[in-house]
Amino acid sequence: MAKKKNVAVIQARMGSSRLPGKVLMPVAGKPLLEHIIDRLRRSSTLDDIVIATSDKPSDDPLVDFAQTRGVTLVRGSEDNVLLRFNKAAEEVDADVIIRVTGDAPLVDPEVMDRLVRTLLQEGAEYCTIEAGIHSIHEGFCTFTREALKRLMTEASDDPVAIEHVTAYFIAHPDKFHIARIPVGNEHRFKGARLSVDTPADVQFFDELYRLLGVPAGDADIADVVRLLRNNPHLLQINQHVYQKKATDRSHKVLIRCDGDSRTGLGHVVRCLALAGELREKQGCGIIFAMASGEPGMEMVRQADFPLERQGDADEGEWMDELISCHHPDVLVLDIRNDLPVEKVNSWREEGILVVGIDDPTPRRLAADLLFYPPIPQISELNWNNFKGEIYSGWEWVLLRKQFCTSCPPRDNNPPVLLLTMGGSDPENFTVTVLRILDELRNDFKTIVVIGAGFVHEDDLQQFLAQARRNYRIEREVSDMASLMRQADLAIASFGVTAYELAASGVPAVYLCLTPDHARSASKFVDGRLAFSCGVLEECSNESIIETTLSLLDSRELRHEMGRRACATVDGYGAMRIATKIVEQLERMHSSNG
């Protein structure tokens, strides 16, 4: 009998919905695909390695990568993975195919060899590990060329076969001869996420290799199991990430927001919170669309979300182009511009789910879902002809997941006062309040937060050069929750920061940029969560001093307000909104058949 040609086909694209470009992203200092290729080359049964990617221009970087690594590259359909695998098998004339996903960097060559030998020895069509066992292995299995041909004939229109290929074998065990290999105890483990779909997964592997102390890609699987058994806390790094199933529908979400020195960074912060939940908990692909604000855009890039930036086209034309290019299932709008409601209606008529965040404009009437914090202005708006759903209240406040952990009241001696005026502080509240605090003789410490969009650095430095008190300056803080939890009280510009402070159990004094902000802040005052001095330009220095001193001088008042605030804002609004969005999507798809 002629020797069978065994070929590993790596399914890889740059256009991952949750983490674009991940296959070439450094994992423990080495490109993800390089991990996989180097491990496959240790196999004793493989005759060839092929990267099967799409013919889209976005996957062009894989051409150069394959050439430098001496690996065959085959390009085919972006959406039909089954066709792509068949083309790869034909081009290299494979008899046995080892399907390898391009996001699982711990493929085990020895186990893969066992799969190939068992497949051939038993004359099976598909071979995988034994059923009912929680194995550490992920991202590879093997099948015959003849089985692939059967899929092309019998399942060419089946969504599971088209997108996931081998999942069809498992879904139809009565149609195929399936062989399985046993898994030893040293490779048995439950609860680990060993594929790369989000930044949290990259962080997991970075820490895994750091603790193993071996070069990237050289991890022994038994050593990995021992490490995870001895250090179960490692699993918490990416345990929250949703593991998509073969039958899951992929959703794409386009988020339109801006963040600059004029509008502040609050819109970007809360949209990033929602995007994180949609990506990690709901398995959605996210694209941000932004027109202005380099600090906000950099925040999006740092979170590893793809970003589209507005060019010369006007808002409506630009959004038309993005929707035509990306075909989103969901459009999230958190903007304060003149985008006409007619445009939004047209996108909704195309079947796109439109979600509005804290929108007071007429565009809200074209939305399917609207989410608001508990603000009194909602009841005053005209809701005639609105056919969507409105959700408003403390439970719908969009906060980053770092604010989901409650904390007891602080009791620092002397008290710690946190001064935070948002990401941009357009009216320079920071220096204005610092001048007031500098005159006080009370015993307290002050932490001053300077955001990424702060444009009053000269004024700040001039003040600090002659200040009487000492001030701790914190710039572009990433873990704001931890910093807030160091404080006994805060003075803050009203906005997203107000809700973050409440979730952190920090009683606060709010200064407002606009009368609208002052009205929204009234909910905090009514609930006895905080004090508000109203619009700053109408507020006297004496009022700010009096309100601040009332908190500085009363430990009991601080603790009472902090406990009430923490109980009111639980920090899970982003999770609730993401869940609502996906539930509405599923209802739409069900009603459309």
From TrEMBL:
Record Gene3D superfamilies: 3.40.50.11190, Glycogen Phosphorylase B, Spore Coat Polysaccharide Biosynthesis Protein SpsA, Chain A
Q: Does the keyword Cell inner membrane apply?
A: no
Q: Superkingdom of this entry's organism?
A: Bacteria
Q: Name one Pfam family in it.
A: CTP_transf_3
Question: Which residues belong to the signal peptide in this entry?
Answer: none
Cross-referenced SUPFAM superfamilies: Nucleotide-diphospho-sugar transferases, UDP-Glycosyltransferase/glycogen phosphorylase
Q: Which GO terms describe its molecular function?
A: transferase activity
> Sorted alphabetically, which keywords does the UniProt record give?
Transferase
Q: What is this protein called?
A: NTP transferase domain-containing protein
